[in-house]
Specification:
Number of domains: 1
Largest sheet: none
Helix content: over 70%
Distance between the termini: 26 Å
Strand content: under 5%
Order of helices and strands: HH
Radius of gyration: 15 Å
Shape: rod-shaped
Structural class: mainly alpha
C-alpha cells in the first residue's frame, strides 16, 4: 500500500510541475501515464486478493 501512495504522490507532483513550469509539458504527460499505471496496478492487486480468499 505504501508503494501505491508513493506513486500517487510522485504522479501528482510531476503533473503539477509539468502544468505550471513553461516548457516542461512532458512532465505532465509522464505524471498522467504514471497515475494510470498506478491505478491499473492497484486494480489488479485487489482483484487478485479477492480471488484468493477462502469461502467460509
Amino acid at each position: 500500500m505504501s508503494l501505491f501512495l508513493a506513486l500517487i504522490i510522485v504522479a501528482i507532483v510531476l503533473g503539477l510541475i509539468g502544468a505550471v513550469v513553461d516548457g516542461l509539458l512532458f512532465l505532465l504527460f509522464i505524471g498522467i501515464v504514471l497515475l494510470v499505471a498506478d491505478l491499473l496496478y492497484i486494480a489488479l492487486r485487489t482483484r487478485r486478493a479477492a480471488r484468493n480468499r477462502p469461502v467460509r
